[in-house]
Fold each of these.
Amino acid sequence: MQPEPAQTPDADLLRAIAQRDETALGSLYDRYRLILFGLLVRILGSREEAEDVLQEVFIQVWRRAADFDEQRGKAFTWLVTLARSRAIDRLRQLSARDRLATATAQEAPSEASDAAQDAYQAEQKEIVAAALAQLPEEQRQTLLLAYFEGLTQSEIATRLQAPLGTIKTRMRSGMIKLREFLGDRSASLRSI
Amino acid sequence: MNHEDYKALLPLQSLLALDGAEATALEQHLSTCADCRAELADWRETTEALAYAATPVEPSAGLRDRILAGVRADPVNLKAAKVVPISRPSARVQPAPASWWGLQAIAAAVIFMGLIAGLVILWRQNQRTQEDLAGLRQQLKQTSGQLDQKQKLLQLLTTPGARMSSLAGTKEAPAAHGMLALDSKSGHAMFMAQGLPPAPAGKAYQLWFIAGKRPPMPGRVFKTDAAGEAMMEEQLSADAMSAGTFAVTLEPQEGVQAPTGPMYLLSPAS
């Protein structure tokens, strides 16, 4: 299933989904399944768990598409926020021992296929990789631990054997730098 | 914490990295501060770009169909529970989350009025965002759905000739409880259950009508909601109406003609 060359904007898809248009939901799935599933597999360390959560995410999209407000941000951000928060919730429900097992034995993602992504997504991937590479290692590390392993700031402090205040500062600084490097896209979306 | 302190937490919140107490405090602040809500949305644009840093992975081929099937069957699509003849045990029931003892019905009505009042206050003060309002509307819809069912139940119970049977949990689910309210004239029945464990994938609970020594007659299949409750309506055949004993077993989700699975609820023999 290839995305059409002239794509319906994401926000339009969500509007259609809010009107109970199944085809639009299918299109949204086709467009973002690789990124979302890749994200979930990275967080959960299991294809099976990731498929469960991806299914839950799309049910949530079906139920809550009407809540999406274009003025507040991009549809992609809304979608990824939903997916990641469900994944982190599930991850935090697992016992500490399960989480350790997951972190140390991440399943190698099969069928990783950059080629199947559309040009826009591939470009975004490059931009984000470049931005991350420009962060000081200690800042980058805290962001990735929070984002992909769902650790809280105090859990990161414990993991890295660093004071909580130091971790907070690194994370804030990292986020500010990341936002600079990615460009301030959000400003254009707000109607100030 | 002052306002600047809350603002400083926003990028961490967008990462979901705040610990419990700080996260709760920030949530409370966000419910009253539109500026911070907007700024959090901005931070999320940055944070969620990190999704591109994960290696893309193709899910299994069947997942798309499973998702669409799940979406088609989602309770949010339905407007009202339908009444279906008992002869088709494969009919699926959409359970409504409901607590259904008399006093709780009154409590729900109070909550309903509270929600109405809450909505009025919100419109006047205009403090909440559209998102919060949509959430409240959703709760209102669910609650008024529950009230419809309670009204039906009340009507049923106050019909002359109506009878009730209570079902007790077996050793499979000692804490479970069920109730069947039946109007023997019309054959209209409502069944409610509490405390049942969630049915495993591919399975559902099925209601049975037992009259004397005859083999059990199949009723509808149902699943419980996240709170372990279920409520459904049935239209009984003349045979089923003569039943004095009722039971619930766990069966394949399409339902079966004769019970095969373990029994979870059983009424005392009449």
Amino acid sequence: MSPMMIIAKREFRSYFGSPLAYVVICLTFLLLGLAIFWVGGFWKVDRASMHLLFQYMPVALAVLIVPVVTMRSMAEEKRSGTLEMLITLPVKDSDVILGKYLGALGLVLMVVLATALYPLAMFWAPWNLGPLDMGPVWSGYIGLVLFSGTAVAIGLLASSLTDSQAVAFFITFFVLVVLWFMGTLAEHVEKAWLADALTYMSFQSRLEGFSRGLIDTRDVVFFLSAMALALVTSFRALERRRWV
Amino acid sequence: MTTDVMISASGLTKQFGSVRALDNVTFDVARGEVVGFLGPNGAGKSTTMRVLTCFIAPTAGSATVHGFDVFEDPLAVRRSIGYLPQRAPLYGDMSVQEYLLFAAQVRGMDEGQFKSRLNKVIEVCGLAQTLTKQISHLSHGYRQRVGLGQALIHDPPILILDEPTSDLDPNEKAEVLRYIKDIGQNRTILLSTHNLAEVEDSCARAIIVSKGRVVADGALDEIRSTTGNVRYVITVDEQSAEGTHRPPSAIELQKALESLKGARGLRELPTDEKAHRFELSGSHESDLRAELFRLMVQKGWTLLELRRDAQSLDAVFRELTRGDEELDRGRPVIDDDDDDANADGDADSAEDSDDKE
């Protein structure tokens, strides 16, 4: 196994060493259930669609799951000094960043994939509420995976800029929420070019297509480049310690 | 022989903003040497070690470890060293065995190699009882051992240990030092500390840094003699004297000792006997013992003790690093104008404060 994968594995396992992972998973399912069946009115809509899941899950990722999961990854290592121990092992800085990234992404994707229990339980067994159109479900999950990848990269970047978990949490929370609601904000902006720019960068408008079953290359490229940018910046932030 | 130089630092300089943490640090460590790297807090010990382990880059200068340049081949450098950072920062959520396995895997060892090395490490570091315990539940002494264990797991030719004994109680300290001595028999070890007694026990050579500069480098005896002073301790009975002579008062004795040629830095030492005890220093070349003896005979005083020894390493250390005290946060400037030792206790007092450059 490469050092990167060993670090990723350690990182992933460490989430289960504390109650953190369990709390996040339980809270996510509780809130998601409330959102879909109560706030969103799944029964009133009366359609065999999982559209509501893809509407609320990204919000849960942005405000809860990703900030909580990524807040410690680099910040805690810096605060406790374990970073020095880790980096002075024969590993490249990029191994550390990518390992941490994959470890955190692993947990987030686990939560994302676990939400598949909703469509499975409602439209396959034990209940069968009707014929579910699988196309939007598949594309919706592809969208969620891309969004998770980008959000975790942003969270990791926030965590590598500070040595306080709380600060990392709030930066990630703030950035993700702003990037999410930019589209809504754009509706209230009068200048057309500004509204376009906001919509262009908004995670919500980028994910819109995926939840309707539309996979647009532009959206895929948008998420992949945002992810790469955040990862490269995290790498630079880690490398910076050598020179200051 | 150049191939036998395991660690070589030349002209290392590190600037943190306006603070110069290292200033032209140059030294070599040869194969098989156990070298004590000494200095007060903030002198640049940890910074030097971080440069050698490629954790940070120097502002100027270069270093090679096991023949590899720290700039050009950091991975090869790290492969050939075992490093224990200050305070042994470990992942608290792992068990000791998991942690050691993690370190071994990152170093590319397979299961078989790990198992055979693990037994050695357990034996040397005394970890048999704690193998399955979670690291966050261990005492600091045991954490330090685990830190030492991970540094040894791949059987490295070079060990760099940053204050391996700080925060330990005296028993733990003695044990860790014994381990270091054991493992140092066939390895090159650079060991930083501000506790001089440790160096006397486990190292043959010391490098003393102060304010980012190397102020002394050599065998312990050499360093000890750098200031060229020896000290004498004299104890004279304060109650009885020879025949009709009166026993001396402290002032009389002090005056008599001051009149000796070549005696300097006279000062009274505390004693619980009914006697006066003085300490004075003289130059390396002359020997004051004969004169002291004649003085006592002439006055008819009873000499209870007369001792001459080389200056203690403690005193040399304080002399070489004088002026550094202002840098030590929260520690009062020691007003010590004698160039000799008063007690061993001083080495320990510096230990509480943290050493962060």
